[in-house]
Model the fold of this input.
Amino acid sequence: MTLASGIRFITEPSRSRTFRAGWVIKDPWTVLENAGITVAGGQIKKIVTPAPKGASVVDLGPGVLMAPLVNAHLHLELSALKNRLPRGKGFAPWVAALLRERDAAGTPTLKAAAQKAAASLQDMGVGLVGEISTLGITRQVLHNRRTAGVWFREFLGDEQEYLGHEEQDLYIKKQFPLSFSAAGHAPHTTAPKLLTALKKRTAAAGLVFSIHVAESEVEMDFIAGIRGGWTDFLASRGIDTAAWPVGNKTPVAYLHDLGVLDGTTLGVHLLHVTDRDLDILERTGTKLCLCPRSNQNLHGRLPDIGSLLAWNLAPALGTDSLASCDSLGIFDEMAFVRQQYPQIALPDILAMATINGARALGLGQLWGTLDTGRTARLLYLDIRASTPAHVMEKVTSYGI
Ligand SMILES: [Zn+2]
Done:
């Protein structure tokens, strides 16, 4: 799907000015008709309604001005694997094919595809990202483009060398517009000692720590203490799990016992959660990101968004990679959510795609709405609507 023709992206104009549009979505619950946004010094200064007229006013047209969308979980690094992996044959064959194809592609091919995918994000309305990188090749790609968000270096296994080398802290840096942080891959793939060390370092830097959690049956079984194929697989890669504190628990409870769940941890997927898990997530203030299209493609299962919203867990949206999802667009993800979950209110869906994502990345003060003080990056959609409700209808189905 090509959205570029109907989208205009405004990035921190150097001069003070006011942008006017037929509709302005200040936040998912506030849609204003004929309003203007005044920006200066890279920030939103005020919203004016009705929109003023004059030489300093840029009239964008009758469409919708809104905050850029947030893709809170993606892997640009895997973009070269689009349409190269088996689907519908189970998770384990998919992971095996991913590792094989990624190694076969080689760094130059992976980097070229990542660059192309990164360049397409703005055309799809995505202005803030949570990029996960295992090989480290996308950090410079995003930094050079001045893409906003958090780049996470992801760690698997026990990677003991990380624990002892301070220079690795170079990967952890809080800065605008793109911070560098760290992620654990998942409870069943990253050693507990490494998870707690990574969490400690990202917390000290005031940054979010990310981890996939409660995604697959393999993960659930391993953390429940069922030894077998997965234990053998890790052993074959030189990882001894004998001392890992697994057994008779869920992945959420396991991470909680390790002490890594709090308001600056971003758990991704949450496909398998119990009421006790939801209680832990709510009490710890853990941030959540869901990737429903990827979940359906890989696992034939969808997250229980209704329960997560009922527990006020404010999930964000991500796409995962092009290896498991057909696009990195969040308009597409919103449209899918709307189709699959007709009972969810449209402002809740737009919140998942904007402010929830910004907060999940620890950037809710700078992004996610058009409130005063937020960053002056704006998204204009060339669509027509007749009422505020109609605006929400159009925006949440724009990806269809
Ligand atoms: Zn992922």
Summary: DSSP finds 15 helices and 14 strands in the chain. Residues 73, 75, 132, 212, 268, 320 surround zinc ion (CB under 6 Å). The chain has two domains: 4-67+369-396, 69-360. The radius of gyration is 21 Å.
